Amino acid sequence: MKIRSNWYLVMLFAVFMLVLAACGSGEENEEAETEGETANEENAEEADNEDSQEVNLYTSRHYDTDDALYDQFTEETGIEVNVISGNADELIERLEREGENTEGDVFITSDAGRLHRAKEADLLQSVESDVLHENIPENFRDTDNQWFGLTKRARVIVYHPDRVSEEELSTYEALADEEWEGRVLVRPADNIYNQSLVASLISINGTEETSAWAEGLVNNFARTPKGGDRDQAKALAAGEGDVAIMNTYYIGKMLNSAEEEEVNVAEQLEIFFPNQETTGTHVNVSGAGVTANAPNPENAVKLIEFLSSEEVQDEFSEANYEYPVNPNVEPAELLQSWGDFEEQDIDLTQLGENNTQALMLMNEAGWQ
User: Fold this and answer.
1) Residue 233, Cα to own-chain centre: how many angstroms?
2) Any idea which positions bind Fe cation (predicted)?
3) For a FRET experiment, which of 23, 86, 109, 335 has its CA 20 to 30 Å from that of 342?
């Protein structure tokens, strides 16, 4: 009986040691699994960080200056800028079509009207950025922070001094007077710059007064509207009309063009900022917004902040003859030579809100 009791004790001790070893092995395995999971998570996070070092830009701007600035952004941040260029309306349609599967992070285009169109289609998202609020005045950004102006363009009266004196010029509204019959050159009604000009006048003067103005302006057209702003300048120099409605930066580009003809045309013409004694000259923007389904939203904000910085705003003005939106930046020397001017005191969001009404008025007035 004593031998059997000892045998039982030996067996119990052996079982106990086996159980203890199993528990220790389980703990070790569990620790190994946990360490493995942690390592995998860290590797995945590192891979995500590597993948996120990019920002995809949908832009309707097509300037060498912009491309150089994107390269500078990459050098400073390590974030690669992938540029997808196209027509503004086509890019808006693309964002709508791609929906949640879009690769687009930032949408950049000319005109507050188009930016508002993207917002109304739920293609942009609100952004909270102290940098953007500091660099961009309130009236040059969306009320819901869904888009931000980056450059300003004044839409002015350009005239030929051999046929028009500066003293004859005053306001946009005065171009509808009988004295300008057969003398006014301007782009067609489908041009967003003209639509935004009319939208601004609706905000200031109301629908009825703006409608009457549009009819009077159409009666004073020198020819059926066609071409772009450069074409209006060329027609003006050729004597087809005496005044043209144009954006300032086109004159800047023509004066510094590689084409001798464009330089010759621009040198013949003068710029007049209308409505200085009343409501101010119409100003529009090129601007940017973060797309609603941006895969890299943080990088998107960084890019827009970079484009609003003083250094970049100065480059926009010097190289592309646009006015900076950042109030701490002086316009380029050429722009300063044209003189200071008062801007329309309206929220640019209204350009988009009034766009449909503006286009309706233009069509009813016969503005082709």
Assistant:
1) 26
2) 62, 249-250
3) 109
- How much is the pLDDT for 52? 67
Which band of pLDDT confidence, cut at 50, 70 and 90, is reported for residue 105? very high
Distance between CA atoms of residues 219 and 178, nearest Å: 9
Using the structure block, give the residue that is written with the tokens 């004597």.
239
Residue 2 is assigned to a structural domain of this protein:
no
Tell me the H-state helices in the chain.
2-51, 64-77, 88-98, 112-120, 130-135, 192-205, 207-219, 229-237, 248-255, 260-267, 297-307, 310-320, 333-337, 349-353, 355-365
What value does the mean pLDDT take over residues 50-61?
A: 86
Where residue 105 sits, what CATH number does that domain have?
A: 3.40.190.10
Are 240 and 251 in a shared domain?
yes
Q: Classify residue 20: in a domain, yes or no.
A: no
Q: Is 172 annotated as a binding residue?
A: no
Query: Taking every pair of C-alpha atoms in the chain, what is the biggest distance, in angstroms?
Result: 134
**Residue-number span of the structural domain to which 184 is assigned:** 153-282+344-365
pLDDT category of residue 351 using cuts at 50, 70 and 90 = very high
Residues 223 and 291 grouped into a single domain: no
**Phi/psi of residue 228, nearest 5 degrees:** -100, -170
User: pLDDT for 169-195, tens place per residue?
Assistant: 999 999 999 999 999 999 999 999 999
Q: Tell me, yes or no, whether 173 and 275 share the same domain.
A: yes
Return the structure tokens found at 86: 């196209």
Report which of 327, 321, 324 is spatially closest to residue 312, judged by C-alpha positions. Answer: 324
116 marked ligand binding residue? no
CB atoms within 10 A of CB 166: 12
* pTM attached to this predicted model: 0.85
